Amino acid sequence: MLEKSAITQVPVADLIARRWSPRAIDPKRPVSQEQLLGLLEAARWAPSCFGDQPWRYLLWDRFTDPAGWQHAFDCLAEGNRVWVKHAPVLLLSVAVPNFSHNSTPNRWAQHDTGAASENLVLQAAALGLVAHQMGGFDAEQAKSRFGIPADHACMAMIAVGHPGAIDSLPEDLRQKEVGPRERKPLDKIVFSGNWGAAFKP
Length: 201
What we know:
With about 200 residues, the protein is of the alpha+beta class.
């Protein structure tokens, strides 16, 4: 996999710095059952309000369930299909809207589902796998195709696989693949005390 460790303002854990979202995926190499279980187990241990674990994942493997995988693939936006066609595994993260212990609305469900997915993609990085989360998909189509309850929130499709050749990508995506990683500086995303107040570490 192309190494693109983050250039951070201060040191962070190596795994966090190394995690990024490649698009070049080997189309011929399956993800093992052991690897998939590792990703899902990492997600299982994410923090959540009341320990409710409001996340659910649908999983499709192109090698063992090509028809199901194709149905999931067909929910993707056209721009994502160009490269996701090589991914052996697709997952869909879904947030359950109500707490399991009292059925009241859980306004932290989507936040917690995101935390679980971050655990999942960090575990993928630790295993040397590609894991790329996407918002570009038709959530209503996914609900209809896969029987997802109407009140649940489809959060992200996640393509998983082994690193592949960059030259398998179209030219515009090759440029993104090798281009620098960028983030807003801390003083643009962190305030001291009051909204908009300059960050003073």
